[in-house]
């Protein structure tokens, strides 16, 4: 019975490594009327091989949309325990505002705080702004292009590493596809170079498949790939994550 429970939990939540760039596109909700909307999901994983690994992932999205303005808040938390060691944790809090300037053009402002024990990031703060352009009007497929200018403040858990304060660019291309009424595919690629040294850059892609189970219940599979040309010393350049779980949304 115990093995069966572990197998069921593992099927509904599995992951490898951690993402460093939050994919805001996958958490936006398309809405053409003034209203609140949101979503919450909880993934629990229990893996037993040469070690016992326990994982909890929780994401909360809250959005308010009007004809001209969009407000978006995201809280993403992950906890992981290996054997009897203490929890290794990661968290991202993201606040974003969009102002509609024209039929296809919006202006974005965002602020983000982040910590990630796996990537040895004690604190990373971002503040940025820039235009967002809609490349298509179709309701069945949407393409977006965004270019942002942002300030980054980063502190490592290793106190011997100096605090970094730099300016970065952030360009992204995103597509949202709705081939059937109960299926959605969202893919976003980010490119974030250091403005004073373009050889220091980050690339991230997240692609997710959502299948509607009930009116407000979604089964979601996501794959995230991250590459950092200049990570904290001892942290690999490449990280990736594969997850699935259940998402509850409301509007």
From TrEMBL:
Q: Which InterPro entries match?
A: DUF481
* Pfam families in alphabetical order: DUF481
- What name is this protein filed under? DUF481 domain-containing protein
- Give the source species: Winogradskyella bathintestinalis
